[in-house]
Amino acid sequence: MLNYTLKRLLQGIVTVWFIATATFIAMHSVPGDPLADEKAVTAEIRANLEAKYGLDKPVFDQYLIYMGNIVKGDFGISFTQENREVNDIIREHFPVSATLGILAVVFAGLGGVLWGALTALYRNRLPDVIIMFLVILGISVPSFVIAAISQLSLVNLNDLLGVSILPVAGWGSVWHMLVPSMVLGLGTMAYLTRLMRSSMLEIVNADYVRTAKSKGLPPTRIFTRHQLRNAILPVITVLGPSIAAITTGGFVVELVFAIPGLGRYFVQAVQQLDYTVIMGTTVFYGSFLVFMVIVVDLLYGLIDPRVRLE
Amino acid sequence: MTTVAGSEDTFNRSAGRQLLLFAAISIGSIGLLMYALAWASSLTGSGAGSEVAVDPETRTVTLFLREEPPQLNSSLATDMVSGMVLGHVMEGLLRYDEHNRLVPGMAERWEIDANGAIFHLRSDAVWSDGAPVTAHDFVFAWQLALDPANASQYAFILYPVKNGRAIAEAKLPVSQLGARAVDDRTLEVTFERPVAYFDKLVAFPTYYPIRRDFYEATKGRYGADAHTLLYNGPFRMTRWVHGAHVRLEKNPTYWDEERIRIEVLDFPYITSDANATLNLFKDNKVAYAGLLAENLNDAMEQRWHIKRFMDGSVFFIEFNFRDGRVTANTNLRKAMQHAVDPAELVYKVTKLPGYIPGESLFPVWLRGVNGYFRQEYPAPKTIKDVVKAREYLQAAKRELGMEQIPPLVLLSGDNPVSNIQSEYFQQVFKQTLGLDIRIDKQIFKQRLAKMTSGDFDMVLAGWGPDYDDPLTFGDLFASWNLNNRGRYSNPELDRQVAIAEESLDPKTRMDAFGEIQRILHDDVVILINYEPGTTYVVNPDLGGLVRRSVGPDPDFTNAYIVEG
User: Fold this and answer.
1) Chain B residue closest to A121 (CA)?
2) What is the sign of the dihedral through the CA atoms of B87, B91, B94 and B96?
3) Do A223 and B445 touch (CB under 8 A)?
């Protein structure tokens, strides 16, 4: 177990290094001048700006310096917000994205298992048809549409009732979290519902379920211990990557609901060629994703005794 | 004895009960989790906004910001949002009033002549920590902006001050700047050349004061947080949660404190999504919101107070005059000039509310000698004339010795408006002149890079004003101007720019701008497209909101709450 964990962590470090290098190369290959602004500047000012961000050195030297700094945990200063360190940006905005992401994942996970089990239970009957129809909608409608529609519905709901029951946008209280995290988790929830449904249907007729029934075990025990527990495995497999996807993919939701998360910086940095923020957020999210995948693999061993970690 | 189907039913009922229990536990735990997360994030969170957009009880107005202010160090700031926030928390020697006229700010009176200016600071001007604002604070701020080590992009706006340019180019030390504190309340400025419009320059953020001891105590983090800024304006920033929340409260130490009738300007929302801000407006959470063209009908149905406003900029096609570019040929440019009609572009193609067809580089709001510049010096017009356009094209082909003009590259941004614009020109030039236009659509930074390196034949460009004088547009195509991306060079235009810069007589200066306007048209340096406008809605309880083309916009310093 310990050996396995160490091996995976080592692999993870190599993966992160690879991500950092690939991002560095891609970023420098994107056409455009990160220091250009609407007003042209004199050669002297330009030279000073280049020196400030180390862009006056050859690209390979920049790479070496950059990798050295990453090892020290220093991502540098943002190009667009000149007196903010990328570390500050990550520290201040990641907790917001993480809060939103955790809630969305919990929504998606619990909802997916619940709806999936329900549809399997009522297969080919009315609840199954209705839920599966909604699932198809949830998977195919992009989040920016859902975000905009749900915000508009909130406005109309508040308007109809004459009081503000749920905030339309912003961040700072429990109620601000509810709708955005549901919107963010919806796609994953829909996907997990389908996964859970098919996995339940496979298990309903499994030998050990039939054995359990014929042994005369109470239905409660059969359903939770034998069916749910086994059917949930594939759900957990995809949960790891989807945690990372949800936590990083909140850009649209953050924009629509005016939430100060990291997703906005992540996307805007690319648009504005903010080199240090691009590198900082990518390396950070990359490490996060790698870490989550390792955690899920370890969890696997706890949930399914058949899996041995070696 | 139960049947098989019966036992299946029993099982399903039991499973259903299990799921119901599971759902109840889920909802409960999600609720708990939300509270736990809210508690954890309240340590760093932004706090919710006020219940209503305009609150007469606390005299709070709730608003949104389009983006996080990137830079609140006034010597480095370049963008509109930072300029707006700075305009509320800082004050220069002069400021803009509710009629967009320049009025005394930190300076109570001033004298400007050909050699320099003297500003007399008011005795009751103090920083938010109680210390007086002195002439030294201005000298320090200007030196900061010019110091090449700070690489301020707006250093050029201080070039009229003696040695400003030489300092920015690292040829002289900052101590040689022609700005001196005679005593705490007297600022003496020596000019590099006569500057008739210097009073208009000092209202610009780069000219705002910065106090040395405070600046140095922040150890390079001046303007990075609410507590690393010192305020001398109508408001002070009491809260700045990055990316989330900016809160400005009335500054009790502001000298003209009686003028300020709003206690709190709260910005708990930061988003560039125009639909989201309009939704917030609809929900009575923000007092003001911009309107997109598609929201106009909805806004009219809601009977909102729809207002229009010109943002002060001008958009045009810039030609490349570098050697080897066919666009350097005057007849080719004339052909294109006779093929387009800005009115058609604005009213039939882009159809954006508030936009007006462009006729001149000098927009309609600029003031001339007595009235508006454009009324005193009407812009020369070209009527769309396809026959003439083709004649010019033939002449151009003869001069260039070409059977066919090679495809021209039109560099363009990647936003929806420039897409429509560039496609319109592509189609018009193809139809009337048979010219092939290749649209080179690029992201912002790459478009700028290509503009600087001259990698285009034509480029969709625009220009906004920095100060309230026609020169802010007038010197754009001077041969020495780095923002003259097409490298147009004309000694006569340079001569007129020099007159406009150095003359002290308003009539002489305006005549020079009139000449510049004529040259730009006759020589077809640019093809003017439009002057953009915006439409917006304001909460009826909020009065005194000022929009302006030059200076902090929107301006809430004169705002008040409509009683009753």
Assistant:
1) B12
2) positive
3) no
